[in-house]
Amino acid sequence: MNELVRRSAAEIARDVGAKRLSAREVTEAVLARVDEVDDKLGCYLTRLNELARSSAQRVDERIAAGETLPLAGVPVAVKDNMCLTGTRTTAGSKILENWIAPYTATAVQRILDAGGVPIGKTNLDEFAMGSSCENSALGVTRNPYDLGRVPGGSSGGSAAAVGGYEAAIGLGSDTGGSIREPGAFCNVVGFKPTYGRVSRYGLIAFASSLDQIGPLARTVEDAALAYDAMAGHDPMDSTSIDRPVELTAIALRGDLKGVKIGIVKEFVTAKLGQEIDALYRRAYSELAALGAELVDVSLPTADYGLATYYLIAPAECSSNLARFDGVRYGLRVDGDDVGQMYENTRAAGFGPEVKRRILIGTYALSSGYYDAYYVKAQKARTMFAQDFRKAFERCDLIAAPAASSPPFEFNSKSDPYSMYMMDYYTIPMSLAGLPALSVPCGYAGSPQLPMGLQLCGPLFQEAKLLGAAHAYEQATKYATKVAVAV
Amino acid sequence: MIARAKYEAVIGIECHVELTTRSKMFCGCANEFGGEPNTKVCPVCLALPGALPVANKEAIEHMIRAGLAFGAKIPEFSKFDRKNYFYPDMPKDYQISQYDMPLTLGGSVRYWLDDGTSKECRLTRIHLEEDTGKSVHAGGDGRIAGSAYSLIDFNRAGVPLMECVSEPDLRSAEEAVAYLEALKRTFVLLGVSDVKMEEGSLRCDANVSIRPAGSNELGTKAEIKNMNSFRSVFRAIESEIARQIDVLESGGRVVQETRGWDESQGVTHSMRSKEEAHDYRYFPDPDLVPLEIDTALIDRLRKTIPALPTERFERYLHEYELDPKQATQLIDNLPLARYFDECVAASGNAKQCTNFVLGDLSRLANETSIAVYASPVTPALLAELIGLVETKTVNSKIAKELVERMWAGEGSPKAIVEKEGLAQTSDTGEIERLIADVLSANEKAVADYKSGKTNILGFLTGQVMKASRGKANPALVTELLRKRLD
């Protein structure tokens, strides 16, 4: 493996910025790596070799012209639910299989403006609905640590690309855990910022009130750099928050002295088996060893997370996905009249999980059921926010599992509910809009495969959160202890 | 006709009015009528994957001003909801609208009938939403039935639309049209809409029911659609009232349904019954933040609301003693009404202003295609002329001549009169000399008069006036002539 592809984004940006290295060299090394391994890993649905080369050239020119670019020459994998003008953008669905985006998502544009080089568009569960990438209609992505296992999802393509050294930064989106869980599975850092911190403009919507773009990276510092480039108000997204962004990359720290970390008593890791229980107990004690004070906190609503989430997210998706009707773009399957055309198009264009959620959501919003389901779920959501607020009166950050298990084998989750359970620990934070990340914390199972520790902070406390994760990562360096399979 | 007197109609109107704004409701595209199909579109109003709406502030302000003009309550808190249904010219397959928290609540519209009677119709609410695109059905006769395919123009998609819902306070087709005219005048006056029905910027539906005269119960209503002019509103409501009376008189029952107005047949047809009504699955749009309307904004907007048409109408009728037709004629030409008001203010003589403005000046305006208010006849000059008439300095004939010369740009009527000695003469000696001349030149007329044809007096007066070059006081001429001949 070319040494250049192993470099962190921070190292690449520093060296390209100092003209010790060109963006072109980095890009060529990464494109060669993609050529070599992506047939096995299947991270990319679309490779953007030409665009990558022209972007790299542009970065080198900008550097030569004296510009300072925080992501100069950094190879970036873009989840294929984010628009990038002139490129195929599929959301992992047959219904958009050949759709070319005519505009660029704000978050992607900001990464490019900062000097990032787009390598390709990565696989995902169709419309970001899933936890393994198995719901993609367009390809299979494999875990870089075990090709017989899933990379997690829905941002599995970006997570595997970063974990498998096919990019330094991956852009993902997280609705109920879709950055954090694949981050854990692929042994990388997966960071979901506060809801509204990064613009959703150009992100193909799954559940608008939960969707949030964030980075996947091999180091916390890289995640922080990417976040700093993307965060901030966007006039094109009414839900993006108009308040100053605290830059995080410069706030990274080396210890956790004086930091109170809450352990959620309802998150009983013993339920996950002895090995995983021991692994998380070790992770918590490692936090304590860095100077953190561990305190017990309670999230009494924790068990209602899945039920709440699986009303709100499908309700929003049932409406968000209505536009895929065969009229203006994407797949069209003709019929005798327009109604038939809708039915034929959507029957052929959407996969089973997407249909399931559209049905659940349509039902939950129906006249006569709306109050019992959607309204009640929204009330529950308020309770999650209140529970977290109360918990954060006792602590600065919360530590929890990022996933219920190490990466699992393909086709091993036979019913939807067992798949939904993968997000048990990540959904509450999503419902409350909180910033949360997963950071590698060791290995479990047989063979030994990556596990992630989830850290979560109060709203807008990204700097504090990334600082703590950095301290943990620097002290433990779990990600580097096992080699990838390709 | 006998049956008709036994019943009273109860009518409520829902009308959609396109707002006049620079850009569309949720994107930056121009809000203009017409243009090449699909040239005023962008990712947002085409509902491309990933695009997000941002609410138009100008449209919200228009709505608040419309509400204030009708004395509506402007709640502090309002929100947008999604109305979900599939329709090919609706890009998102949901319409962003307002369900349970509209921008304005209550208020009432005062209007008047042709005979000058003032009436009032309460408003339920006015809410803000977005317009759809337009389908053009090709092959066949332009209607969807029998067409081979349809083309869609999305230029109109996303144009801000206010829906104005009235209480069932209207009792006849005449009242319904008068109410709509009052709405139209007010919206034009406020500058919130140009209200061009022929361009579809005002569209309305009528809820019509009948009940026995004197009853307070509401009958079963039918909703009438497809009325595209005030005249068709009138005809459709008349026809529907007659139809419902026929149904009841023949022992039937009116069913709740939607009926379409057929302009060429002059009847309404059943479109769908209540049982087939859509379940729109309204829910708050998670892409848009709730609107908080502060009192400072309301106060600022309140100051921008001019005197309403009804106030002006009542002033014209009761203070200036115009007849309802004259008052309506002025009010429907708002700049002319403003000009008229200035003339009245300058001259203090409403009657003379009415005569000049609606008489000679309007005639000249028609002949020359120059608007009265844009002509050289300023309110101050007209007031000067009216002064000359009031003091009997000029008679009506000279006044007429002066108006023409003022229109031609000759300036001050006083100056013209002084320069050319056009002041009316009441010099008895002078007039008697002219009479003597006229009588001696018209012996036959004198003989006729004496033989009893006294109406020849008008001819003789005219001859004397002519001899005086119009300056003689005509009343005095007649009086002196009579004295001389009798």
Provide the descriptors you would attach to this structure in a database record.
heterodimer, A: 486 residues, alpha/beta, Amidase signature (AS) enzymes, eleven-stranded mixed sheet, B: alpha+beta, Arc Repressor Mutant, subunit A, three-stranded antiparallel sheet, 16 helices, elongated
What does this protein structure show overall?
Chain A has 486 residues and is an alpha/beta fold. Chain B is of the alpha+beta class and 486 residues long. In chain B, strands 1, 5, 6, 7, 10, 11, 12, 13 and 14 form a nine-stranded mixed sheet that branches. In chain B, strands 4-3-15 form a three-stranded antiparallel sheet, with no helix packed on it. In chain B, strands 2-16 form a two-stranded antiparallel ribbon. In chain B, strand 13 and strand 14 form a beta hairpin. In chain B, helix 6 runs antiparallel to helix 7. At the A-B interface, helix 10 and helix 11 of A face loops of B.
- Whole-number radius of gyration of chain A? 21 Å
The name of the CATH topology of the domain at 3-257 and 401-480 in chain A is Amidase signature (AS) enzymes
Average pLDDT over all residues of chain A: 97
Beta-strand proportion of chain B: 15-25%
- As for the number of domains of chain B, it is 3
**What is the tally of helical segments of chain A?**
16
The low-confidence runs of chain B, each spanning 5 or more residues with pLDDT under 50, are none
Cα distance spanning the termini of chain B: 60 Å
Number of E-type strands of chain B: 16
In percent, how helical is the residue content of chain B? 25-40%
What is the helix tally of chain B? Answer: 16
